[in-house]
Amino acid sequence: MSINEIKRALVIGASGQVGGVIARRLVASGVTTCGTYCGHKPEQSSNYELQHLDLLDSDEVHKVIKDAAPDCIYLAASYTDVDGCENDPERSYAVNVSGVRDMVSAVQDKPCKLVYFSSDYVFDGLKGPYDEKAKPAPLNVYGQHKLEAERIIASSGLSNIIVRTTVVYGDEWQRKNFVARLIATLGKGESLTVPNDQIGNPTYNETLADASIELCNSYNQGVFNIAGQERVSRYQFAVEAAQVFGLDQSLIKATTTSALKQAAKRPLAGGLILTKAKSALKTELIGYKDGLLKLKELLSP
C-alpha cells in the first residue's frame, strides 16, 4: 500500500500524546481521519471526527472500524500504567492483548494497513540498547502483553508496521508524560525523585508521529525502532528538561530504581538502536536536547 492509496485513516487513541499528533498530521495532509478516545473527551480543535472507543468492548471495536472503513489504522491506545498492569494483569491483558486481537479480527478481510505502537519494555534491560532482531525477554506484565500484541499483529497476515519506542514526551492535553509532570511539579516548587539507573532514548512525540506516518505511507513492513537518537538516564533527562524550561534542577533528586519499590520491575540498560529506521526514513530522529527545545518553542506563548 502506497501513500496514494491511503485515503481514510483510523487513529485509535487520538486523545493521547502520540495519536493526537498523528491525527492532526493526517488531516493536514488531506487524509480523511477518524480519531477515538476512551474516558474523558478532549477539547477538539482539529477538523476530524472524534468518537468513543473502549478496547474492552469488542462490539464497539468492530462497529467503529466498520463505520470508519479505514485504509490504515494507527493503534496508539493501550493501558500504559506499568505498575497498574502488574497489579491488575487481567485488565492489562483485556486491553493490551484482547483489544488488539479484536481489532485484527475486525479488519481481517479488509485491505487495511496496521501501525502498532510497542515499547522497549519487551526487553529485560540487561544488555541494551537493542535492535529489531534482539530476542525479547520482558520483565513485567506490561512488557509481556505488548510482546503478545506484537505477535498477534505480525501473524495477522495484514500489512503492518510495529513501532517500538520509549520515554515519549511532548505536548498533550492530559499532561501525563514525564516532561509534562516534571514541569508541573518543579513549577510548584516541589521536589521530584527520579531514577538515575534507567537508561533509554527519550522520544519527542512529534518526531515519532512523523516517522510512523512515513513508514505507514511506504511499502515497509515489520518491526522498526523509532526513538530519540541519544540514550540517557531518566535523571539526566530530567535535569536537561529543567534547564531548558528554566526550572530549579536542585529540586530533582536522584535515586535507584530499587529504592522506588515499584510493583513492576523496570529494564535498566534499555533503549533502542535506530540503524534500520534511519536507513528507511527521511524524517530525522532527533535527540532529546533538540526535542526539548522544540517543545519549549511549541509551548511558548
What's a quick, concise take on this entry?
This protein is globular. It has helices at residues 19-28, 58-68, 82-87, 89-106, 141-154, 178-187, 205-216, 234-244, 257-260, 275-280, 288-299, and strands at 8-12, 32-37, 49-52, 72-75, 113-119, 160-165, 168-169, 192-195, 199-200, 203-204, 222-225, 232-233, 252-255. The protein contains eleven helices and 13 strands.
Structural descriptors:
single chain, 301 residues, alpha/beta, Rossmann fold, two-stranded parallel sheet, 13 strands, 38% helix
Q: How many extended strands?
A: 13
Order of strands across the widest beta sheet? 3-2-1-4-5-6-11
Cα-atom Rg, whole angstroms? 18 Å
What order do the helices and strands follow?
A: EHEEHEHHEHEEHEEEHEEHEHHH
Q: Main sheet?
A: 7 strands, parallel
Strand content: 15-25%
Summarize the amount of helix as a percent range. Answer: 25-40%
What structural class is derived from the secondary structure elements?
A: alpha/beta
Low-confidence parts, pLDDT < 50 over ≥5 residues?
Answer: none
CATH topology heading: Rossmann fold
Give the second-level CATH assignment, the architecture: 3-Layer(aba) Sandwich
User: Given the C-alpha coordinates, what overall shape results?
Assistant: globular
